[in-house]
């Protein structure tokens, strides 16, 4: 079974702090994604990566950056946390070079509260 | 523009009955894929079922089936014989063209009553 592990289940940070959310997958997947989930808005894509050292902006990248130095690890960085970044953050991965029918495999999420 | 629309924020269903969750999508690509995920209160995202745009038959996986109407751009999820464990949030999602990323709808909360 594919395992996507997010390092923290719950985080509480202060406004202005630099926050790192870590995600590791163990299935040698090329593709990795960061989404945030908010009530009534579903999941919105922040950043994604299709290869090591590669990153692309999703639909809501403002206030975030990412790092992918190794294939299995994809980090989301909040440079200066703000209260409007309080949310559930979901990491996902999928294999590359295949057809459209491969689903994303998700981690259990990190619930971040910025006070 | 919203790519995936789920118009039902919440639904109640009686145990053992069937429930249909609506999903409409918007794309200009001829090749796309549609996915449904379940998210129980524990928060994990569980993949349920997939339908490709070129698939001629509606997808089925156990008690889950997908009512795919391409001309209407709808991909409704049908859960038959509902169980208490089906109580969860359900998300419809789409992958377009050569992209691997998914666009998600706002979700529908299903509550199964005994």
Helix content of chain A: under 10%
From the alpha carbons, calculate the radius of gyration of chain B and give it in angstroms. 14 Å
Shape of chain B: globular
Mean of residue pLDDT of chain A?
94
The rounded distance between the terminal residues' Cα atoms of chain B is: 39 Å
Order of helices and strands of chain A: EEEEEEEEEEEE
Report the end-to-end length of chain A measured between terminal Cα atoms.
37 Å
**Beta content of chain B:** over 45%
Secondary-structure-based class of chain A equals mainly beta
- Quaternary assembly: heterodimer
Largest sheet geometry of chain B: 6 strands, mixed
Uncertain parts of chain A: none
- What is the tally of helical segments of chain B? 0
SSE topology:
The complex is a heterodimer of chains A (115) and B (114).
Chain A: E1 4-6, E2 10-13, E3 19-21, E4 23-25, E5 31-38, E6 42-49, E7 56-57, E8 64-70, E9 73-78, E10 87-94, E11 105-106, E12 110-114
Parallel strand pairs in A: 2-12
Antiparallel strand pairs in A: 1-4, 3-9, 5-6, 5-10, 6-7, 8-9, 10-11, 10-12
Chain B: E1 4-5, E2 10-14, E3 19-21, E4 24-25, E5 32-39, E6 46-52, E7 60-61, E8 64-69, E9 74-79, E10 88-96, E11 103-104, E12 108-113
Parallel strand pairs in B: 2-12
Antiparallel strand pairs in B: 1-4, 3-9, 5-6, 5-10, 7-8, 8-9, 10-11, 10-12
Outline the structure in words.
The complex is a heterodimer of chains A (115) and B (114). With 115 residues, chain A is mainly beta. In chain A, 0% of the residues lie in helices and 51% in strands. In chain A, the strands form 3 sheets. In chain A, strands 2, 5, 6, 7, 10, 11 and 12 form a 7-stranded mixed sheet that branches. Chain A has a 3-stranded antiparallel sheet with strand order 3-9-8, with no helix packed on it. A two-stranded antiparallel sheet of chain A has the order 1-4. In chain A, a hairpin with a 6-residue loop joins strand 6 (42-49) and strand 7 (56-57). Chain B is built from no helices and 12 strands. Chain B starts with a strand and ends with a strand.
């Amino acid at each position: 079974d594919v395992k996507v592990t997010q390092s923290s289940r719950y985080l509480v940070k202060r406004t202005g702090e630099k926050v790192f959310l870590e995600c590791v997958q163990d299935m040698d997947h090329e593709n990795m994604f960061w989404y945030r989930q908010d009530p009534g808005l579903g999941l919105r894509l922040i950043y994604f990566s299709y290869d090591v050292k590669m990153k692309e902006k999703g639909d809501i990248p403002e206030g975030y950056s990412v790092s992918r130095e190794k294939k299995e690890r994809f980090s989301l960085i909040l440079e200066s946390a703000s209260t409007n970044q309080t949310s559930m953050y979901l990491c996902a991965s999928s294999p590359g070079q295949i057809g459209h029918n491969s689903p994303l495999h998700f981690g259990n999420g990190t619930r971040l509260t910025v006070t | 523009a919203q790519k995936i629309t789920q118009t039902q924020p919440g639904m109640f269903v009686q145990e053992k009955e069937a429930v249909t969750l609506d999903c409409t999508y918007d794309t200009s690509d001829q090749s796309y894929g549609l996915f449904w995920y379940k998210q129980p209160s524990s928060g994990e995202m569980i993949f349920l079922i997939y339908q490709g745009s070129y698939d001629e038959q509606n997808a089925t996986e156990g008690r889950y089936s997908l009512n795919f109407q391409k001309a209407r751009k709808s991909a409704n999820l049908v859960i038959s014989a509902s169980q208490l464990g089906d109580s969860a949030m359900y998300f419809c999602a789409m992958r377009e063209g050569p992209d691997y990323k998914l666009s998600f709808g706002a979700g529908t909360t299903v509550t199964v009553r005994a």
